[in-house]
Amino acid sequence: MSSTQEAALASADHPTPRRYAGGGLGTYVVRRVLSAAATMLFVLVFNFFLFRLLPGDPISLYTRGRNMDQEQLRELRRELDQPMLTQFVDYLTNPFSSGVDSTQFSRPVWDVIGDYVWPTVILLSTATILSAVIGIAIGIRGGWSRGGTFDRVSTGTSLTLYAMPEFWLGMVLLILLSTGVGPLPGMFPSGGTITPGVDKWSLDGILDQLWHLFLPALTLTLAYLAEYALVMRSSLVDELRQDYLTTARAKGMREKLVRRRHAVPNALLPTVTLVFLNIGFVVSGAITVETVYSWPGLGLLSYQAIRGPDIPLLQAIFLLFSISVVVANLVADVVVAAVDPRVRA
Amino acid sequence: MQVRRTRLPVMLVSAAVTALIAMAVATPASGADDEPTTFTVGIKQDIDSLNPFTGIVSSAYEMYQMNYDTLTDYAAEDFSAQPAMAESWETSDDGLTWTYKLRSGMKWSDGEPLTARDVEYSFNRIRNGRYEQTNYGNYVAAITSVEAVDDTTVVMKVDKPTPVMLHLYVYILPEHIWKDIDGKEVRKFDNEPEGPDGVVGSGPYIVTEHQKGQFLRFKANPNYWGGKPAVDEVVFRVFQNDDSLAQALRRGEIDFADDLGSNVFESLQDAEGVTTFDAKYSGFNEIAFNVGAALDDGTPIGDGHPALKDVKLRQALSYAVDTEAIAERVFGGHATPGTSIIPDLYQDLHYDPGSSAFTFDPERAKQLLDEAGYREGSDGIRTSPEGRKLSFRLFGRSNSQTSQQTVQFVAGWFRDVGVEVKPKIVSEDALTEIIGQGNFDLFEWGWVVEPDPNYQLSTFTCANRSYKDGGQVYANLSDSFFCDEEYDRLNDLQAEQIDPAERAETVKQMQQIVYEQAPYIVTVYYDNLQAYRSDRFEGFVPQPDPDGSLLFQYGTHSYRNITPVSAEEPAGDGSSDQAAEEDDGSSNTALVVGGIVVAALVLGGVGYALSRRRADHDVE
User: Fold this and answer.
1) In this predicted model, what pLDDT tens digit does every residue of A93-129 receive, in sequence order?
2) How far apart are alpha carbons A163 and A42 in whole angstroms?
3) If both were cysteines, with which of A12, A231, A344, B157 could A28 make a disulfide (CB 3.0 to 4.6 Å apart)?
């Protein structure tokens, strides 16, 4: 749910716009937190039933590839066959219980997720930060001198990048920069986060990990950057028509200051919202890019869980993704409200 | 308007990029002479567990056999029983007592002595442990006692003679480590390495590091009974797609790639320093008929087409399938047409129908159908003598390209002889359920056959049809619901034949029954496409000789025998940057085209934007 929709819904409750009353940040935050909690509860319940609707015999999934006779299977089925209500209560009282084992890895699902969460967070946060910073900078420069050469080139490139499938871009970069083509030598590794045998925490190890991070991060940065640049550019272009800029210029303010102090802060809002909303997807990873670069992140893990299918693992991953999106929405709402009092009403 | 822009972010970014590129160029060159030789294998799936009682994916078994040795081994030449930990063995005349003589002076990788006590411990742990039996129960099912008579002699007693005693593929575990892990803890025990000494074992290599989802690292075991292997380290790196796996091989980041797709395999054929190997494999695919779905007690289930119970119909349809076309056109020639249910990879066991084979002959198929009373109707579709139209559902698997293509081909061939086919593509899990309930007419799937034929043969016994538990029907091993008294009798017989030649005779008779009764049309025996850096390693041992798989075998034959290509040879200066440079020469059109397309797209975008701006100006 986007913040604008939220705001629209909120204002529907109050037919008379209350510009000042109840507009405090505190009340607003409390309201948002409550609604996020409600969403979360819904997700929790939905998640439980979603996975019980799937066809198939869970015992045959658990015991696939194992040499178990009918008698053992019957016993196992009796052990696990609890009434739906009991299952639901167990699930609700402790959705994060580590008691549930992944059928694929035979380990508690949250332990498995723990192994895969850090590579994803590192890759996606690097790409998000880089793409936001570079994208916003490009958007500002292009939007301010609209129609200039820089604007035309950057908009064209952004549109092109925006249209490219991530995995394809990844594959092309892999071939160009990892394998090397013609005179271009192969410079970067084809996958993984570290060279086997290098100590993770040594200086060499850290450099080695940065070296491995380069291609996947570059791919994702290029893929995300376009969106930020385009949104930033268009919102800045909208601001350019505003009277307050004329006022600022009339005061004799230097062009650079007009842009930095007046235009950009106002134009930043949509982009900031977008950045924070996207942070919700940092945890869910980028399945396609992680697959191209064999990056052991949650995107890959969810792919493996689906391919299994590893229902307990998939359920835990779904829960984690939903929560991170809900939390990111909440943070985006609060941050935007803190920056822009207009949304609090 | 002229505005001075701050260039700091741009400078920072370019500085960072420059630094990374400098690093990139510098890092691969650091391979010094005194570094240990490392053989790196690309695998397509991470292992599920290092605990041999827990893991089930096939790559995990490669890790177990690296780390743990077994009593006997499957010979590289022909899968016959070969000494491993046991240097010799003998059986009593009644076949009920087996005595294994171990090599003397064996040691675990941590230096502790490895004796018959460890063997006794490992077998008894499985015999007495419910969880332990899930992976190895079939090896100990007949064993009634295991005893270490002295340090190098183990005596086992069985309740009936069984050939499995020649191939006890049970990993012998160090008692001094595993005795502390009880029957409950073993379910959670991950057996991960916790230091440079690795997981204590007795195999040729010891696992020392596991980065989940990324790689496993093994070091040569100096205490291995066969002597320390020539290559110091073996690394298994996980790749998530075929293309990056192939690129890594091209680049020299890895030395071996297994289970490649045929497109990628062909693209590697002219890569420098790389040798591709079309290895014969133990897998087959089939079109299976629902020959009359029923429970193990004979109660009919499901909604299969009744006409498929007629063996004459199934035989006629067997003539209508062009297995050669499937091998050529679906598998790109990386397969051979199939016949019986044990692939010809196992030469001693494989039954060859010879001149009585159902070779593709649509006219013959039509003639047989006519003779059996399946007359063609006005719409060109035949009906059974009972008046039911020959219209069959044929299920294919959604995750397999070859499955879907095969289904399309078969549907066409069947239509040509007057049999209507409705292809349905579903996931493998959905299909398992559908098969178990007997709700199908035909489906396409396959099996991978072990060197011991017991399991494969058991998929056609009456007892392994679906079964009922609490009102629910559950799938068992049988997926065609084939049931034949003579077949079951021979199956019991082969399970007790110790002499390999006698057993092979029985196994062939069983295959002949299945072939002639035609519950399956075996379409192909497909190959395993492997490729390796022949400029860096040599001495691979195929299993079986001469065209079987080079790695992922029954046993660790290649790992123990490969050696680095010596540095004196002009061809192989094996450092990775050298390999990368050599690679530049081999022009790969796909790569160049990819690059050109990107450039064209970017330029196109720029041009489009420019022209649009201009148009806007014109309007203004």
Assistant:
1) 766 665 677 777 778 888 888 888 889 889 988 999 9
2) 34
3) A344
Instruction: Give contacts of A137 with chain B, Cβ < 8 Å.
Output: 9-10
Interchain proximity A107–B13, CB inside 8 Å: no
- Where along chain B do its domains lie? 15-68+190-281+528-578, 75-181+592-601, 284-526
Residue A99: what pLDDT? 60
The CATH architecture of the domain made up of A24-55+99-344 is: Orthogonal Bundle (1.10)
The string of DSSP codes covering A105-147 is: T-SBHHHHHHHHHHHHHHHHHHHHHHHHHHHHHHHHHHHHTTT
Cα torsion B222, B226, B230, B232 to 10°: value is -30
Model pLDDT, residue B567: 61
Residues pairing with A244 in the sheet: none
Q: What is the pLDDT of residues A184-199, one digit of tens each?
A: 777 888 888 888 888 8
What is the assigned CATH class of domain B75-181+592-601? Answer: alpha beta
Q: From the list A147, A197, A256, which residue is nearest B613 (CB)?
A: A147
Which residues in chain A are closer than 8 Å to B243, comparing Cβ atoms? 171, 174, 292
Q: Between A203-240 and A109-144, two packed helices, what is the crossing angle to 10 degrees?
A: 40
Q: Report how far residue B442's alpha carbon sits from residue B417's, in angstroms, rounded to the nearest whole number.
A: 16
- Nearest Cα of chain B lies from the Cα of A327 at a distance, in angstroms, of 28
Q: Under an 8 A CB cutoff, do B23 and A63 touch?
A: no
Domains in chain A: boundaries: 24-55+99-344
Question: Cβ of B474 and A66 within 8 Å?
Answer: no
- CA A319 to chain B, closest CA, distance in angstroms equals 21
pLDDT tens digits for range B438-449:
999 999 999 999
In this structure, which CATH number among 3.90.640.10, 3.40.50.720, 3.40.190.10, 3.30.450.20 belongs to the domain B15-68+190-281+528-578? Answer: 3.40.190.10
d(CA B237, CA B247): 13
Considering only CB atoms, which chain A residues are within 8 Å of B56? 64-66
Query: What residue type is assigned to position A25 of the chain?
Result: L
Chain A residue numbers with beta carbons less than 8 Å from the beta carbon of B187 are 106
Using the beta-carbon criterion (under 8 Å), do B4 and A181 form an inter-chain contact?
A: no
Mutate to test the interface with A, among B14, B244, B466, B477 (most CBs of A within 10 A): B244
Q: What pLDDT is recorded for position B596?
A: 55
The pTM of the full predicted model, rounded to 2 decimals, is 0.82
Lowest mean pLDDT among A272-286, B175-189, B202-216, B587-601: B587-601
Test A211 with B27 for CB contact under 8 angstroms.
Answer: yes
Min Cα separation B26/chain A (Å): 9
Residue B409 touches chain A, beta carbons under 8 Å: no
Residues B540-543: contacts with CB within 8 Å, 24+ apart? B541/B76, B542/B76, B542/B279, B543/B74, B543/B76, B543/B77, B543/B79
Report the topology of domain B284-526.
Answer: Dipeptide-binding Protein; domain 3 (3.10.105)
In this complex, how many residue pairs, one in chain A and one in chain B, have their CB atoms less than 8 Å apart?
224
How far apart are the CA of B365 and the nearest CA of chain A, in angstroms? 38
Map tokens 């291995």 to a residue.
B224
How many other C-beta atoms can be found within 10 angstroms of the C-beta atom of residue B136? Answer: 22
Q: Give me the percent of chain B exceeding a pLDDT of 90.
A: 72
Question: What's the average model confidence in pLDDT over B519-547?
Answer: 95
Interface predicted TM-score (ipTM): 0.78
* pLDDT of A77 higher than 70: yes
Chain B closest CA to A39's CA: distance in Å?
32
B181 CA: distance to closest CA in chain A (Å):
16
- Single-letter code of the amino acid located at B337: P
Residue A106 and residue B54: Cβ atoms within 8 Å?
yes
- Which residues on A lie below 8 Å from B11 (Cβ)? none
Structure-token match 């106002």, residue found: A266
Reported residue count of chain B is 620
What's the pLDDT at A97?
Answer: 61
